[in-house]
Design a protein that fits this description.
The chain is α+β, with helices and mostly antiparallel strands. 46% of the residues lie in helices and 17% in strands. It has four helices and three strands. Helix 2 packs antiparallel against helix 4.
Length: 125
């Protein structure tokens, strides 16, 4: 029961942040990073760029995760360049939201990073 409420809260918060920032004309760097993170997660993409005026998303989709090694420089990753058109940013970003457990953990961390930017946490012993 508690797990279901947490899932709902995470999804509602993500949707609220998307809706709050999708209809503004000026996008801050923080908002752009937030949008790009959602798209990167959904498409398994790298180098995501959003052209808000032309309603386009340019990205490189990673084709094979098995050749990826986070401990080395990944120079020869096979990627597919993609140029997507979207009519409505809110609907597009909302369609990128996934509800599996791994994605929910990612969104919870994304919400935390988005809402706490500029503040520093201090560990108390």
């Amino acid at each position: 029961m508690e797990n279901s409420r947490l899932k709902t809260r995470i999804l509602m918060e993500i949707e609220k942040i998307i809706s709050r920032n999708s209809f503004k004309g000026d996008m801050t760097k923080k908002t752009q990073d937030f949008h790009e993170s959602i798209i990167k997660k959904h498409y398994n993409a790298s180098d995501v760029k959003i052209d808000y005026h032309r309603h386009r998303v340019k990205m490189n989709i990673v084709l094979d995760d098995t050749s990826y090694n986070p401990r080395t420089a990944n120079i020869n990753l096979s990627t597919l360049p993609m140029n997507l058109f979207f009519k409505n940013l809110y609907d597009f970003l909302k369609s990128c939201i996934e509800t599996d457990t791994k994605s929910l953990a990612f969104y919870a961390k994304l919400i935390q990073d988005y809402t706490n930017r500029g503040t520093h946490s201090v560990a108390v012993y």
